[in-house]
Design a protein that fits this description.
two-stranded antiparallel ribbon; globular; alpha+beta; three-stranded antiparallel sheet; 26% strand; 131 residues
């Protein structure tokens, strides 16, 4: 769907840079953000799950309140402040989390295998465009 293979290669290279950053943050169990001279960090937990999730929902917990963002129709999202709905979403996420493998901070070998698998997929895809 791209007119120029160099565009695809550039995107894949950027994706590898993103994976490198994400792997470093998972190793430290900290997310980092730089803006001008400011530097922000927060705790970060990354899990691997074999359970296929068919949505890109987001669950946010702020000051004791839980908010849900549910994607639909590809580009749209629904935001809910309903405590009962958000608590149900939170229970669902927690059930998935306890059945998942923690990749951040610990599990160095599993984390390496996870990211190396993603890099290998990118490398294979990139090789198809370089031909």
């Amino acid at each position: 769907m791209f007119k120029d293979a160099n565009t695809v290669i550039s995107i894949l290279d950027d994706l590898v840079l993103f994976l490198n950053q994400l792997e470093a943050e998972a190793m430290l169990a900290k997310k980092t953000y730089h803006r001008n001279a400011e530097h922000f960090t927060s705790n970060f937990s990354m899990y691997q799950s074999d359970i296929f999730m068919s949505n890109n929902s987001i669950l946010a917990s702020v000051g004791g309140s839980v908010y849900s963002y549910v994607s639909f129709n590809s580009f749209n999202s629904l935001m809910s402040f309903s405590p009962s709905f958000s608590e149900e979403c939170q229970r669902w996420v927690e059930q998935i989390r306890v059945k998942s493998i923690l990749l951040s901070d610990v599990s160095e070998r599993l984390r390496y295998q996870f990211f190396q698998g993603l890099r290998n997929k990118i490398k294979t895809l990139k090789a198809d465009f370089i031909k």
